[in-house]
Amino acid sequence: MLTEYVQGNSFIHRLHPLTKILWTLVVLFLSFLTSNPVFILVLLGLNVVIAFLSGLLSKMLPVFKGLIFFSLILILCQIFFVEEGKTIVYLFPFAKMGRITDQGLLLSLVMSLRMITTVSTIPILMMTTRMTDLASMLTGNLKLPYSYVFMFLTALQFIPAYFSEMQRILKAQMARGYESDTKNLIRKIRIIIPLAVPLLVMAVRRVQTRAVSMEIRGFGRKGRSNFRIIKPQKPDYVVTLLMLVTVGIVSVLTVI
Prior knowledge:
Elements: H1 11-14, H2 17-33, H3 37-53, H4 57-78, E1 87-92, E2 97-101, H5 102-127, H6 131-141, H7 146-175, H8 185-192, H9 196-216, H10 234-255
Helix pairs in contact: 2-5, 2-10, 3-5, 4-5, 6-7
C-alpha cells in the first residue's frame, strides 16, 4: 500500500518528517505559482529522482501510470472547453465542431502536470516516513493536539488494513472456486459489493480493540511524554535552505 512505510536507509528516509512535508508543500506551491509546463515537468522529474534515491521507483510506477491515465482523461475533458487562442484543428472539420486551440491544449497540459506532480509527492512522503516519527513531529514540532494526530494516523493505518483484508477474502473465495479475477467492470463491482459486510465487521472489531487498548494505556491523561524524539539534522537544514531559495527565485521570476 502507498500509505505504508517501506523500510530503508536512504538519504530520503533519514530526513526529518518536517523536511519532507515542507517539500510536499513547496511542490504544491510552485506547481500552482507558475503556468510554465517545462518548470512543472522539472518538479515531476525531481519527484522521480527522489523516488529512485529512496528505492521506491518500482513501487511508484503504478502510481505514475494511474496518474497519467487520469491526466489523459482530464486533457480530453478540458481541451474542448477553452475557446481562447488560435485554432489548431477541428475534430470534425466539415461541421466546424470540436475546436482545439493552442491555449486550450496548453491549459490542459499544465493542469495534468500539476495533478501528477502534486499527487505523486504524497506516497513518497508516506513510504519514507515512520508513523511514529510523523506523530512525534506533528505533536512535538508543530504542537498539534495529539488526539487529532491520533485520529489522522489511525485512518492512514486502517486503509492498508482494509485492502489487505479485502485481498484475503478474495483469495479465500478463489480457493473455493469463485472467479473473482475479472476485467469486466460491472462484474468486478458485483464481486466487491458483498465484501462490504465482512469489512464493516472487521472495522467495528478493530475500533473496539483499539478503544480498549487506548483506555488501558491511559489515552487522554495529562502529562504524557514521547518515547522517541527526533530532531532536525544538518542535511535537513541544507535541504530546507535550498527549497526556500528555490521558492524565492521562482517567485521573483514569476513576478518579473
